[in-house]
Structures are given as C-alpha cells and as structure tokens.
Amino acid sequence: xxxxxxxxxxxxxxxxxxxxxxxxxxxxxxxxxxxxxxxxxxxxxxxxxxxxxxxxxxxxxxxxxxxxxxxxxxxxxxxxxxxxxxxxxxxxxxxxxxxxxxxxxxxxxxxxxxxxxxxxxxxxxxxxxxxxxxxxxxxxxxxxxxxxxxxxxxxxxxxxxxxxxxxxxxxxxxxxxxxxxxxxxxxxxxxxxxx
Length: 195
What we know:
By secondary structure, this protein is mostly helical. The chain has a single domain (2-161), classed as CATH 1.20.1330.10. It contains three helices and four strands, in the order H-H-E-E-E-E-H. A hairpin with a 4-residue loop joins strand 3 (91-95) and strand 4 (100-104). Helix 1 (2-47) runs antiparallel to helix 2 (53-76). It is rod-shaped.
C-alpha cells in the first residue's frame, strides 16, 4: 500500500509539472494576444484615410517589430529546456497509476507566417482580417490549455484523495497488527513467567 501511495505522489508531481508547462504556454499566448491587439490597433490606425505615407511608414515599423516579437516568443518559450512551441505535435504522456494523459504541444498559426504590412490603406485592411483570425486562433488555444490545466488539477485532487485513503488504510492495518503483536507478546510473556 505504501508503494502504491508513493507512486500516486510521483504521479501528482508529474501532473504538477505538466500544469507548469501548460501555464508557461498560456502565459506566452497571453503576451501574443496583447501583441496582436496592439498590432490590430496599429492596422486600424493605418487604415484611416487621413494618414500620410510617412505616418503609415512609422506605424508599419512598429507593426513589423511586433511581428518579430511574436516569432521570438514562439522560438524561445521553453519549459525544462524543452521548446514549448517548436511546431512539433508531440504527445506528452503522464503515467497516472493505470492510465495515460496525452497532451499535444502546438503553437497556433501566426500572422507572422504571412508577410503582412500596413504601409498602405489596403494592406492595413487586409492585415486587420489576418490579425482577427490570429486572435481567434490564439483564444481557442488558450481555452484548450485552460481545459487541460483544469483536467490535470482534477486529476491531482483525485490522486491526493486516493493517496490519503491508501495511507489511512495502511495505517489502520499497521495499527491493528501492532495491537495484535502487543497482545501476543504479553500473552507469551505471561506464559513464560508462569512456567
């Protein structure tokens, strides 16, 4: 029983590590969301017909810098020296005492995959649509991460409950055995003293 409870504690640690990795990914996607919202603001501003070419050039310069930042986040976000958004859809398997949880690391499609600019009014209007798609995709993936985190938290709660129940049961069995041993010892002692 103690070995099984120990295995459950190890499974809990594995689940906690998975939650940490998912939270790392979620934090990166929150930053990407903030960047996309700023990019959308810049595109809307650039789509305004009252801007000069010089204004649009300045707006596009910031826009391109933000595009590069999204790429940088995708390339450098790591957990335990593993790239979180490496483009590989590798399952993460956690052995939780009898069953396996498969999760897939995936970066959502980025607007940076397309060469988008906001140098002209037309480019800015097209960029707004691409950014809206990217925001939807990121929101979907963040919701998916949240669902996985919740699932793992419920799994941890279940494993904690099972581990406590096993520990309590083992303790009762050991206490019962100790009482029996004490009784046998006293009985044997009495018999030896009488003899």
